[in-house]
Amino acid sequence: MANEAKVRAESTQAVETPKTRLAGWFSLIVFLILAGVPFMMTLEMTLIVESALVAALFALATNFLVRDAGLVSFGQAVFYGTGAYTIGLLWMHNRSPFEIGFVLAPFIAAIVALIIGALSLRAREFYFALLTLGFSQLFYSLSIQFYSFTQGDTGIFGIPLPDYLRNPVSSYEFILIVGTLGTVVLWWIRRTPFGLTLRAIRDNRTRSQALGVNVFSVQLAAFVISGFFCGLAGALFIVYQQHAYPAMLNWEASGVPILMSVLGGMGSFIGPIVGAFIYTILQMWVGTETQHWPLFVGLIVLGFVLLYPGGASRALSQIRQLWMKRG
User: Fold this and answer.
1) I need a surface site. Which of 69, 149, 289, 294 has the fewest CB within 10 A?
2) Residue 20 covered by a domain
3) Which residues cross the membrane (predicted)?
4) Which of 231, 283, 281 lies closest to 62, judged by CA?
5) How do residues 70-85 score in pLDDT, each as one tens digit?
6) In the beta sheet, which residues pair with residue 244?
7) For the chain, percent helix, then strand, then coil, each to nearest 5?
8) What is the residue range of 39's domain?
9) What is the per-residue DSSP string for 167-206?
10) C-alpha–C-alpha distance, residues 202 and 69, integer Å
11) Cα separation of 312 and 263, whole Å?
12) Is residue 327 in some structural domain?
């Protein structure tokens, strides 16, 4: 299986080289445009983009598990919230510097993912999803019940940032750089033999087992990787909001990155990124008009998905192809 994955990896790289180079240049242009947002847009618009960047990493990490591993989890918010709460709790109880909490956050989230994954992956499909949802609600309840430790349903407010992140421009650029690094690493993991093996398990679990693959170990590794980057996104949320609260942990928060991925296109690597930006903009726009914004955003997303089942990234690809044919 390892040899097969290696051959497939080499052939994939050989075929996709021109496409990969074009995607690389396009990604660089997008990064430079995003880097210039604080200098070209108002503070309000910069904060919206900043929120979308955090959401994009959360959606990418979740979609890695759903798309590449074929594991639909409704518990990824546990790791997202763990990343945020790690920074908040270390500051509240030990007055630990932000840097210590930020470095530890994704690793603590990965450890939690290891424990939850080891228990949940004993089940399959619907029952796996149900178990992850149960863990999400468990952590949500614990964050409310232990008021003396977590500040209950009010959460931990006013988490201080170091001086170099208190400027809106510097905090934005920090989120952009860290989020981009996380995106690149996830993209690289998908192209490794591990990523190919993971997709082989998704496509044919029985055949993979027959070829000697330890399916449980590979899927558990994918679950931990996803948890790590969800935790990193949660840590970046603290840079954006300086607030950790229980709603970050519940199953509804776990559904948001899946919704973003569907909106942008789960079949494309950039789909969750596109979906995160569309969802965040819709949320901000509709939220200013009505307090019932989840209903209206849900209807808009539903209508869009019915019109474009492949998501926004697929729709943009079709528009580009039509444009090229006309040219």
Assistant:
1) 289
2) no
3) 22-41, 47-65, 77-94, 100-119, 126-149, 169-189, 210-238, 258-281, 293-311
4) 231
5) 999 999 999 999 999 9
6) 156
7) 85, 0, 15
8) 27-249
9) SHHHHHHHHHHHHHHHHHHHHHHHHSHHHHHHHHHHH-HH
10) 5
11) 6
12) no
